[in-house]
Amino acid sequence: MSAESLERQTRSFLNDNVPQIQEHGGHFEIEDVDDETGEVTVVIGGACSGCGIAPMTMRAIRHRLPDEVEDLSKVTVRRANGPRAAVMPNKTDEMEEMDEYEDYSPPF
């Protein structure tokens, strides 16, 4: 599979299945694609940077994307860095590990 095809499939899944990101003022970027290993890195930003449910959205993308994109072996999802990234990373990390979010199923 070519990197372009892997990237195109990833973008298509995100556009079709995670419209809430854009509807709520966020955005995503496909930062890196490695066609040899099947690894993709997705960055979410904009309003996602300060959103309390972003960790759950990130987890859902990590778990669902490999099931939907052929030849995708690993997904890394992170928040965008920079001056507009108004988030407390230590709290975000804690949220990702909380049992309450283990079975969270966002509407995509």
From TrEMBL:
GO molecular function: iron ion binding; iron-sulfur cluster binding
Domain NIF system FeS cluster assembly NifU C-terminal, residue spans: 19-75
Pfam families attached to this UniProt entry: NifU
Region of interest: Disordered: 1-27, 83-108
Biased composition (Basic and acidic residues): 1-10
Bias kind Polar residues: ranges: 11-20
Biased composition (Acidic residues): 94-108
Protein name per the record: Thioredoxin-like protein
UniProt source species: Haloferax elongans ATCC BAA-1513
